[in-house]
Amino acid sequence: MTDIGLLRAVSWRYPLEAREPAAGFASRLAGLNGLPMRKFLREMRIHPHDLDKCRHSALQSIAVLGSADVEKLSRFTPIPSVDGDCFTIGTESLSRLSVRRTYFCICPHCIREDLAQYDGPVATRPWLRLEWIITHFRSCDRHNVLLVPTTPTRRRYQPFDFTEWIAAIVPKLDELAQASVKISPSPFQKWMMDRLEGRCDAANWLDDMPLSAAIAFCETLGLSALHPPKVLVTSLSVSEHATAADEGFKIACQGDVEIERLLTRLADAQSTTRGFWGLRDTFGHAYGLLESTKNSRDYAKPRNLFRRVAIANVPIKAGTSVLGEVLEKRVVHTIRSAANVSGAHSLTIRRLFERKQLRDEATLQLMDHRVTVKSDELERILDDLKSALTTTQVQQVTGIPRNHLFYMINAGHLPTVTGSHEKAYAKHRFTQAAVDDTLERLFRDTVPVEKPTGRQMSVLRARQAAVSGLNEIIDFLFAGRIWKGLLSGRREYGALLVDADEIIAAIREGQVKSGFTKAEAAKFIVGMGRDSVQKFIAAGHLCLVEEFSPEARRKVLVVSRESAEEFLQAYVSLGELSQSAELHHKQIRSALRNVGIEAHFDPDIFLSFFYARAAVNKALIANPNLWRSGIKRAA
Predict the structure, then answer these.
(1) Distance CA 615, CA 386 (A)
(2) Which residues span the domain enclosing 581?
(3) Does 246 lie in the same domain as 127?
């Protein structure tokens, strides 16, 4: 072991450069004094293995020989841990594979600048930078080119001799510089160097994570963002790795929102694929990293975020371990899983998704095991479906005829589990509670009847006797608007009684028809023949609407009052003009023809004469004696 007190600074030495590690500094000292590094170290009684392991005694000896501050020399020298699993640089730690120990990378442009900075032997002028021996630095941020890997002679238990390799490549340095690959500045590398130099940014989401974990997370997150989940990492080029690291850093430094946006996008992309929906296949290499480090506290923050997003977006079965924690309750269902849980057919669940608008139309085009929905929206429905009754079972239990039951469903009197009431022939499902509640409302306030009168009859017979629609009677029953009787000793739909005369009165009550039958429309629009009404309806000038007719006790098609009034405002008939002018229709036609006004509609087609009211009014304003000209012409 070297006695530090006996060492003195060598005469030929360079000052310690910024971020220059001990092995590079020792190599320059050796070369400047005309010796290979291994021989220089032995002559100075420094064991090469001690320098290779960056032991303090070796660093202290090198510092004395080069007249350097040992603290500064140690500051940017990667110090291996006792077990060799990591390296320490200042206050930061890097993984074992983060430091290049058998080779280094260089920037040819930096080497050329170094050659011009010093005098002395050419090979000793350049110096080794810390970033050249850190594997995560792939480019030179000064010259924006990819670093060039080297092939120094590797000797067991000794650090590589930087100066020895420089001497070999100086003759072809210009060639290396010309061949260097341009690349964009790297914010990821700038952030790493800031951390290594002791600078942190409280606004950066990554800066409360250990550096080694933050670096690995950025690199794998970038791979997940830019490449397919199963991309072979070894197949990617150095520039592709650099681009991925920058992309991962850009996303991660902004925090939870941006990371969650990326993960949601990856989950959505996976939903269009086939086969098993796995978390590693969804989130790629970033998830693989967190899975392999699920017991490490260093990755707790990204691991918790990934777990939360995965559970919220991927259909994971209860009992599955997600990054070290067991999922107790399923959060996301697919059509297939919901069908398995409920016992309903997949098509029933798919239509349920459609009716409840749980997913958009585009998503519903996917396969059953790829259409997802949050389970809290389905939990109650799936529980109800397990014991739900079919339409046939409800008929058997209640005795309600099929068409009566379907109207109750469609009108919302009997709610369905799946919200299928708007579909007449859907596969409806009902809870026993809903059926019981419907019967309770149906039989509420019924009067026991021993012997019904002639007009007290079942719903089916009352419909015929009152010449009414089934829907009116059922609505009256649930609204409690009519008398309800129940044959003594029975409680079934067939024993329910209503009064036919009361139904007739209830139907007529408050019902007013505002539209016109065709005959009424012909009277309302003066001068329109009865046969003309249908012509104008067919041409779209009069509109038909459905209104309830108290006389017919049903809904009938009538000409809407609005369209008839609009027609009268726009057109005037020859009959109306004849009446108002008290002239023969031939005289009116003659007068209008004199001023160039012809029938607006072809009389041969529409079977009547109608003129544009605005044109006639304009002609009368211009010539108040218009009709006199018609009289003279007719004479």
Answers:
(1) 71
(2) 514-635
(3) no
| Cα atoms in the 13 Å half-sphere on the side-chain side of 184 | 11
Kindly report whether the global pTM for this prediction surpasses the value 0.85. Answer: no
Which residues of the chain are under the pLDDT cut of 70?
1-6, 275, 333-387, 418-426, 467, 508-513, 548-554, 629-635
Percent of the chain as helix, strand, coil, to the nearest 5: 50, 10, 35
Shared domain check, 28 and 158:
yes
Q: What is the pLDDT of residue 208?
A: 92
> For residue 524, is it within any domain?
yes
Q: Kindly provide the b/e burial profile for residues 482-491, where b requires at least 16 CB atoms within 10 angstroms of the residue's own CB.
A: bebbbbeeee
Interacting residues of 210 by C-beta distance below 8 A, sequence separation 6+ = 92, 93, 298
Q: Are residues 527 and 621 in the same domain?
A: yes
* Chain length of the chain: 635
* 632 contact partners, CB below 8 Å, separation of at least 6: none
Whether residue 521 is found in the same domain as residue 619: yes
Q: Quick one: 83 and 163 in the same domain?
A: yes
User: Where is the domain boundary, 301, 330, 359?
Assistant: 330
Query: Which residues of 48-151 form beta strands (DSSP E)?
Result: 79-80, 86-89, 92-95, 105-106, 139-140, 145-146, 148-149
Is residue 352 domain-resident? no
pLDDT of residue 422: 58
List Cβ neighbours of 77 (8 Å cut-off, separation of 6 or more): 21, 22, 23, 54, 59, 89
Task: Output the pLDDT for position 424.
Answer: 54
Q: Which of 147, 179, 211 is the last residue of a domain?
A: 179
Q: What is the pLDDT of residues 201-240, one digit of tens each?
A: 989 999 999 999 999 999 999 999 999 999 999 999 999 9
Do 103 and 217 reside in the same domain of the chain?
A: no
Q: Are 283 and 266 in contact (CB under 8 A)?
A: yes
What is the reported pLDDT for 362?
45
